[in-house]
Amino acid sequence: MEEMDSGEKRLNELGYKQELRREMTLFKTLAISVSTVTLFTGITPLYGSSLLYAGPASLVWGWVVVSFFTWFIGIAMAEICSSFPTTGSLYFWAAHLAGPLWGPFASWCCAWLETIGLIAGIGTQAYAGSQTLQIIILLCTGTNKGGGYFAPRGVFLAMYIGLTVIWAILNTFALQVIAVIDIISIWWQITGGVIIVIMLPLVAPSTQPASYVFGHFEMAPDSTGIRSKAYAVILAFIVSQYSLYGYDAAAHLTEETKGADKNGPIAILSSIGIISVFGWAYILTLTFSIQVYALSRDQGVPFSSLWRKIHPKHKVPSNAVWLCAAICILIGLPILKVNVVFTAITSICTVGWVGGYSIPIFARMVMAEKNFNPGPFYLGRASRPICLVAFLWICYTCSVFLLPTSYPIKFDTFNYAPIGLGICLTTILLWWILDARKWFKGPVRNINGQSEKV
């Protein structure tokens, strides 16, 4: 008789039966986690604007500072992941760690923040991908000085929609293809990153001295409208804060990962380590070379029975995938009229995604230690101080992404993220107060074919 996987055994102890295919190895999970972190697609489009705020030194040291505090979040999440290796990750963690009184509300808020971050995250990747295609087409047809074709807004939106649809198709019918693509991606990022780091300074007409890269601070108030040095540095850190999240993908895949109670934490921490090193190397290379400046399963979403339905053949929630794609397309439609869509989507994505981290981490920090059932990765007495630093850094990060990024504030420079998030969060809280608190109880145990509230 085949021995039960340790992750599946822990899942059964928590009251959940195994529903998804547990076939992801540590390397595959790590590959997906690293690919989810927005390294090249995060740094590249935001590098120029972040550089403009306060010069190269703020970018270079900003990555170091943000990486340092990201480790606190990752370590805190790794401990929780080791104890709760289940699909739904943060949502499930919040429900159990917050206890029977606050658990339903904690899981409700966490799940919706994750949902907002996920959908906006799809949009940021589709937007960044469209920008890349736009540049490739321009370069292949003669560049902006040689009569090259620069895709207009309508074509750009078509590319955005096309990439979103491709994402939905792959997530519905080809999970193994995604795993292969992600394995290729991690090698591409590592190999390509090494090549860029080595070759870019060699082919650059000139390189900057170390004193410029590590010590030069320069503002551009005429371009940004920002005249406060402290505010300029805060905005310059945005590129790092946006690029260093998504490592929780390993936690979302724990129900599909072999030995998830051990491999989940390893994948989370390993992905942070890889991205921290390669991200800083990439920023240094660019700077030296400068020539110029699961919610629906537990009935938390309307029509939950439709969205939580698992495809009988492919074993994925295909209806939920296409719902996310449809919403992602809708939030991209303003591309036709305004220039700040990317800023708004990245802000919403980061606040939703990173904000979701804060709820289980805060719950872990304040809960009685005797109520925590640790997994193989356990922090002991270090847990509370690590969680405190992680929680405070998350609060700071979310606040930064709600700030105006350019002055004077006008229609085409306004950060619309606070309005969008305000509407979403107000709706979610009112829904909870007026209705959901009466019936939503958080994750539903399904062991032995029976449904039972946690």
Automatic annotation (TrEMBL):
<dbReference type="Pfam" id="PF13520">
    <property type="entry name" value="AA_permease_2"/>
</dbReference>
<keyword id="KW-1133">Transmembrane helix</keyword>
<dbReference type="InterPro" id="IPR004840">
    <property type="entry name" value="Amino_acid_permease_CS"/>
</dbReference>
<feature type="transmembrane region" description="Helical">
    <location>
        <begin position="60"/>
        <end position="78"/>
    </location>
</feature>
<feature type="transmembrane region" description="Helical">
    <location>
        <begin position="90"/>
        <end position="114"/>
    </location>
</feature>
<dbReference type="InterPro" id="IPR002293">
    <property type="entry name" value="AA/rel_permease1"/>
</dbReference>
<keyword id="KW-0812">Transmembrane</keyword>
<feature type="transmembrane region" description="Helical">
    <location>
        <begin position="267"/>
        <end position="295"/>
    </location>
</feature>
<dbReference type="GO" id="GO:0016020">
    <property type="term" value="C:membrane"/>
</dbReference>
<keyword id="KW-0472">Membrane</keyword>
<feature type="transmembrane region" description="Helical">
    <location>
        <begin position="316"/>
        <end position="336"/>
    </location>
</feature>
<feature type="transmembrane region" description="Helical">
    <location>
        <begin position="155"/>
        <end position="180"/>
    </location>
</feature>
<feature type="transmembrane region" description="Helical">
    <location>
        <begin position="186"/>
        <end position="207"/>
    </location>
</feature>
<dbReference type="GO" id="GO:0006865">
    <property type="term" value="P:amino acid transport"/>
</dbReference>
<dbReference type="GO" id="GO:0022857">
    <property type="term" value="F:transmembrane transporter activity"/>
</dbReference>
<feature type="transmembrane region" description="Helical">
    <location>
        <begin position="416"/>
        <end position="434"/>
    </location>
</feature>
<feature type="transmembrane region" description="Helical">
    <location>
        <begin position="342"/>
        <end position="366"/>
    </location>
</feature>
<protein>
    <recommendedName>
        <fullName>Amino-acid permease BAT1 homolog</fullName>
    </recommendedName>
</protein>
<feature type="transmembrane region" description="Helical">
    <location>
        <begin position="386"/>
        <end position="404"/>
    </location>
</feature>
<feature type="transmembrane region" description="Helical">
    <location>
        <begin position="126"/>
        <end position="143"/>
    </location>
</feature>
<keyword id="KW-0813">Transport</keyword>
<feature type="transmembrane region" description="Helical">
    <location>
        <begin position="26"/>
        <end position="48"/>
    </location>
</feature>
